[in-house]
C-alpha cells in the first residue's frame, strides 16, 4: 500500500519528467492531449509516466494532466 508521501513524490517526479518532454511540443497538441485522454500524445505521456514512476493508470493520467496544465500556463503567461 502506498503512503501519501510516496504518492506525492511520484506525482512530483512524474510531472517533472513530463514537463521536460513537453517543451518542444506545439501548443495545439498539448491542448488536444489535455482535453482528450485518447489523444496519441496523452496516451504516450501516460505510458511514459507509468514506466518512469511505476504509477497506475489513474495516477499516470493525473500526472500527465498536471504537467500539461503547467506547460500551457507557462506558455500563456509568456504570450502576455
Q: How would you characterize this protein structure?
A:
The chain is an all-alpha fold. The protein has four helices and no strands. Helix 1 crosses helix 3 and helix 2 crosses helix 3. The protein is globular.
| Main sheet: strands, sense, barrel | none
**What is the radius of gyration computed over CA atoms, rounded to a whole number of angstroms?**
12 Å
The SSE string, one letter per element, is: HHHH
Structural class, judged by helices and strands?
mainly alpha
Kindly state the number of beta strands. Answer: 0
Label the overall shape.
globular
Q: How much β-strand is present in the residues? A: under 5%
Terminal Cα span? 44 Å
Low-pLDDT runs of 5+ residues are none
* Mean pLDDT level: 83
Total helical segments: 4
* Helicity, as a percent range: over 70%
Amino acid at each position: 500500500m502506498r503512503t501519501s508521501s510516496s504518492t506525492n513524490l511520484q506525482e512530483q517526479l512524474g510531472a517533472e519528467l513530463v514537463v521536460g518532454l513537453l517543451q518542444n511540443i506545439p501548443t495545439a497538441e498539448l491542448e488536444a492531449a489535455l482535453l482528450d485522454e485518447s489523444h496519441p500524445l496523452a496516451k504516450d505521456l501516460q505510458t511514459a509516466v507509468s514506466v518512469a514512476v511505476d504509477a497506475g493508470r489513474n495516477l499516470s493520467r493525473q500526472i500527465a494532466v498536471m504537467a500539461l496544465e503547467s506547460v500551457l500556463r507557462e506558455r500563456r503567461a509568456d504570450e502576455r
